[in-house]
């Protein structure tokens, strides 16, 4: 795609203003007697357009600013926030946080992360690629994407629309250790949703492309055609018998299984003993070939950063090696609750890479015999305490290594610890549209609830 000339880059000025406001917040907190304090400030802008059936539905521009202040009086903690960077609002917000802290109970685990853990590097991760779109240009791209989808096949009967989004974010984190870190990043996306068929036989599906840089996006026409092809492939679903089968998760849904693992390995649920991974650090929870690594310093990574939300330096680190869970995902507070050290994951994980041991989805289908390919899941049926798993699903039925027809209205169920142990393959068809970069994932056996009377 060609792009118009970019306007002047004002990100440095925006970071400077946020940095000045951060220093003022910390000065005010110290003046009011806080023993420690930190502040997160952000300045976000964006443009989003939506079209449907060749007509513009919405055009939205946003400019959002935020300041979140935390103060400590010993082991007492208070929080307050505002969307106004003016001096009077900053002072009032600090005063509110101090008032809250004075009336809370002390918690021995409260406090900033250790000063010795603060990041000392400020690298450029190539994360700043503004897309100089005006509303007319964004609308034209969305219309192009939708038109390509509608023109793919006569069986495309309707559209749920197309959207284009571009945004940027500038943020600063600072604390009373003397740490101040500034970051900037951009995000771009194009998405399309198509409807195939008519009446009771209609099927809907979508596709999207997203990246830090517009140069890394798929073309609008390609996105539209892929959305249409996916909707067409779902026409004429047939029922299947309930039973236990191999289940192959396409890349765009496979990462949700890793997401459940990350949630279960997070400090908040662990110190509450509400996770099936309590006391599992150092134990094998996945097949002995399985590798999962955190890579926070990738160029153009969707979550690349030198520091976490507490200023703790990020490092390349394995989370799972040879199937063994090496560590948890901890902030300084959750680490203290568990008697451990922060892992630099306050605010969540950074870029994750799941190692592959197989080819792509089509090759994996040929090797699975009879089973289910899942391309869509519905519901939130994962219990982190018990590990019980049950979600609605749709996709394709496989016989003798070939996709034979689409299926929908299914339920797939299992027990997450057993499902992780039963993973047989991770494909090389890696989906890079998420901070969890991984390919298709094959679980050797799961319960699939279809129709008991199906042929």
TrEMBL record:
GO terms for biological process: proteolysis. It comes from the Bacteria. GO terms for cellular component: cytosol. Residues 129-235 form the Metalloprotease TldD/E central domain. Residues 242-450 form the Metalloprotease TldD/E C-terminal domain. InterPro entries: Metalloprtase-TldD/E_C, Metalloprtase-TldD/E_cen_dom, Metalloprtase-TldD/E_N, PmbA, TldD/PmbA_N, TldD/PmbA_sf. Residues 37-101 form the Metalloprotease TldD/E N-terminal domain. GO terms for molecular function: metallopeptidase activity. Belongs to the peptidase U62 family. This is Peptidase PmbA.
């Amino acid at each position: 795609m060609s792009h118009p000339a970019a306007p002047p880059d004002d990100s440095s000025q925006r970071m400077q203003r946020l940095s000045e406001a951060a220093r003022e917040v910390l000065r005010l907190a110290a003046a009011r007697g806080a023993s420690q304090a930190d502040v997160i400030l952000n300045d976000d802008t964006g443009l989003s357009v939506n079209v449907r059936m060749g007509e513009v539905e919405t055009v939205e521009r946003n400019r959002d600013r935020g300041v979140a202040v935390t103060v400590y009086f010993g082991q007492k903690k208070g929080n307050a926030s505002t969307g106004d960077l003016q001096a009077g609002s900053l002072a009032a917000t600090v005063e509110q946080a101090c008032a809250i802290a004075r009336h809370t109970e002390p918690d021995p685990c409260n406090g900033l992360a250790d000063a010795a853990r603060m990041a000392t590097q400020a690298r450029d991760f190539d994360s700043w690629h503004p897309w100089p779109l005006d509303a007319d240009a964004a609308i034209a791209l969305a219309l192009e994407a939708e038109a390509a989808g509608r023109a793919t096949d006569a069986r495309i009967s309707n559209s749920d629309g197309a959207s284009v989004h571009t945004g940027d974010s500038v943020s600063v984190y600072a604390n009373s250790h003397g740490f101040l870190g500034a970051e900037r990043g951009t995000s771009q996306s194009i998405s399309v949703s198509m409807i195939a068929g008519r009446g009771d036989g209609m099927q809907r599906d979508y596709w999207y492309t997203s990246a830090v840089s517009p140069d890394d996006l798929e073309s609008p026409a390609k996105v539209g055609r892929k959305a249409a092809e996916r909707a067409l492939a779902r026409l004429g679903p047939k029922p299947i018998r309930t039973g236990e089968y191999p289940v192959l998760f396409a890349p765009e849904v496979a990462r949700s299984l890793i997401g459940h693992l990350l949630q279960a390995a997070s400090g908040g649920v662990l110190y509450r003993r509400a996770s099936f991974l309590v006391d599992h650090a150092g134990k094998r929870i996945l097949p002995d070939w399985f590798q999962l690594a955190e890579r926070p310093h990738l160029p153009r990574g969707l979550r690349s950063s030198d520091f976490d939300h507490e200023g703790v330096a990020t490092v390349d680190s394995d989370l799972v090696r040879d199937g063994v869970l090496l560590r948890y995902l901890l902030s300084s507070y959750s680490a203290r609750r568990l008697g451990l050290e922060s892992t630099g994951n306050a605010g969540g994980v950074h870029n994750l890479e799941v190692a592959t041991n197989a080819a792509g989805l089509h090759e994996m289908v040929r090797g699975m015999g009879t089973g289910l390919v899942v391309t869509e899941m519905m519901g939130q049926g994962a219990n982190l305490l018990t590990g019980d798993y049950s979600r609605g699903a749709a996709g394709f039925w496989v016989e003798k290594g070939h996709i034979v027809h689409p299926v929908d209205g299914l339920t797939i169920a299992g027990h997450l610890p057993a499902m992780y142990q039963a993973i047989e393959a991770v494909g090389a068809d890696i989906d890079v549209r998420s901070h969890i970069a991984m390919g298709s994932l094959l679980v050797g056996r799961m319960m699939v609830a279809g129709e008991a009377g199906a042929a």
